[in-house]
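Field: COMPLEX_INPUT
Field: COMPONENT_COUNT = two
Field: RESIDUE_TOTAL = 278
Field: MODE = joint
Values follow.
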Amino acid sequence: MATESAVRASEDSRTEETRSGQFYRPNVDIVETADGLLLLADMPGVKGSEIDINFEDGSLVIHGKVAKRQPDDQAFLLQEYGVGDFYRTFRVSEQIDATGITAELHDGVLVLKLPTVEAVKPRRISVKVS
Amino acid sequence: MVMRRNTVHPLDQLRGEVDRLFNGFVATPAGATAARLVGRPFPAVNVWEHGDDLYAEAEVPGLKSENVEISVVGNELTIKGERPETEQDSTAFHRRERGAGPFTRILRLPVEINADKVQAALKDGVLLITLPKSEAAKPRKIQVNTRE
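Field: COMPLEX_OUTPUT
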């Protein structure tokens, strides 16, 4: 039986446009799990103490601060990426339990668990027989 | 006497044929997941020079030191490894931008490297490789002979 997925996450493009140019957009994987959503974001160079995650009114904001690793006037023989803060916002459907969100950072990857509120989770209802 | 300057910029050497060739290889499977590594080569690398050393820095989020293999032969730097899968058994990806699977990058550096002295450190998903120039590659004063 195919079921409509209860939770959705989509790009919050409005915020992103106004922010472009100042921040780098982390690559993400968003996976639906039995408990809700799992979001992984590549944020190399970000330390755990330098990451802000905000969830308000269905809007998820991720901001990782990155300290400069080379002087501003560094000349590169090859430069394939820039070093700077990571920033990205998402619209997340309202079935997410904001109080249950957990975040971990391992080896430059942010792991966010966004659980759905209990009422939305598929449950097996046992029927009491008197 | 006409002096000709060497017009090959180090940048052009770095983005040499070898790199292009091998990035092509990565996109075609050595494992089933390799095909997902499309678009930009992985990992992205910055290279700079400071004194007698070259430095190569690569963004490798999610990798631990045991997942990365670095080797240097002459002026060729090879970074190999494998990125772990996000979730093996999940079917419902809403978004999939992070790559997974094996990767290889080969960079041709502008100078020969003393391979015995190469060091690498991995922290918070950033790999920093210190590449000391070989004795032969360090700047020397060259006697210029004129020809008839």
